[in-house]
């Protein structure tokens, strides 16, 4: 299988002891391209170091993660905007709204997302959206801003069938990861009937490792497990799932990956 990991934090501190070996395992497992969403100003240097070392395989994205939005978020977004003006990136992200851990900064998260949506339009880049416990809040902002130019992915999608259909109507993709392999993940009830053209595969490593590695550090080499489970849910061949989702990922983020 030839695969593309559409969302992987391979620059994470958790990979520091064995980063090269981890990436080699990924390439040997058939993962040909890896897209790296940014977190905040502290993750930029390690992310760009990985990209410089693996320029044809690992591609950087630029944004501010909602869990790192504070009252001083404008300073972080100034850095994001500066970098977007300085060189190419594959997407704006990861950005969005997260109400799982803390609802204190909801207004700041909403404003930070609106600003990053505007940056995506300005630079003609796709968005990588994080919407944990906040699908409605994030989708409302995307709906209000969608003028036909916005595109991107609702990463780590684990919502309802209705929410999946709303994402598709908005012109966005569904990022499917390790949750698809969980016994009570719910995606076995959501994905049937959804065309492969709307799906991307991801690990979100080092988080959300698929079965049988659940609870351990995730890595891109585990992406074939996600592909096989999605194929099983859809009643399709794993090769077909790999081919379609890789094509979708490279089409969405493709200028960076192919340029």
UniProtKB/TrEMBL annotation:
<protein>
    <submittedName>
        <fullName>TatD family hydrolase</fullName>
    </submittedName>
</protein>
<dbReference type="InterPro" id="IPR015991">
    <property type="entry name" value="TatD/YcfH-like"/>
</dbReference>
<comment type="similarity">
    <text>Belongs to the metallo-dependent hydrolases superfamily. TatD-type hydrolase family.</text>
</comment>
<dbReference type="Pfam" id="PF01026">
    <property type="entry name" value="TatD_DNase"/>
</dbReference>
<keyword id="KW-0378">Hydrolase</keyword>
<dbReference type="InterPro" id="IPR032466">
    <property type="entry name" value="Metal_Hydrolase"/>
</dbReference>
<dbReference type="InterPro" id="IPR001130">
    <property type="entry name" value="TatD-like"/>
</dbReference>
<dbReference type="InterPro" id="IPR018228">
    <property type="entry name" value="DNase_TatD-rel_CS"/>
</dbReference>
<keyword id="KW-0479">Metal-binding</keyword>
<dbReference type="GO" id="GO:0016787">
    <property type="term" value="F:hydrolase activity"/>
</dbReference>
């Amino acid at each position: 299988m030839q695969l593309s990991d559409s969302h992987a934090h391979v620059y994470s501190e958790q990979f520091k002891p064995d980063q090269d070996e981890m990436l080699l395992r990924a390439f040997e497992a058939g993962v040909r391209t890896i897209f790296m969403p940014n977190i905040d100003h502290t993750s930029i240097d390690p992310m760009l170091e990985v990209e410089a070392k693996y320029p044809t395989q690992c591609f950087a994205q630029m944004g501010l993660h909602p869990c790192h939005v504070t009252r001083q978020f404008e300073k972080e977004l100034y850095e994001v905007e500066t970098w977007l003006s300085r060189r190419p990136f594959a997407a704006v992200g990861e950005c969005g709204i997260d109400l799982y851990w803390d609802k204190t900064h909801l207004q700041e998260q909403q404003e930070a997302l609106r600003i990053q949506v505007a940056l995506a339009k300005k630079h003609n880049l796709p968005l990588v959206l994080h919407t944990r416990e906040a699908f409605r809040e994030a989708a409302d902002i995307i709906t209000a801003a969608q003028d036909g130019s916005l595109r991107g992915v609702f990463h780590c999608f684990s919502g309802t069938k209705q929410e999946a259909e709303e994402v598709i109507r908005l012109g966005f993709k569904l990022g499917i990861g390790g949750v698809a392999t969980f016994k009570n993940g719910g995606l076995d009830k959501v994905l049937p009937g959804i065309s492969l053209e709307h799906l991307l595969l991801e690990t979100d490593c080092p988080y959300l490792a698929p079965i049988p590695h659940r609870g351990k550090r995730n890595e891109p080499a585990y992406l074939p497990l996600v592909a096989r489970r999605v194929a099983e849910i859809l009643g399709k061949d794993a090769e077909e799932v790999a081919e379609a989702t890789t094509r979708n990922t490279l089409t969405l983020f493709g200028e960076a990956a192919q340029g």
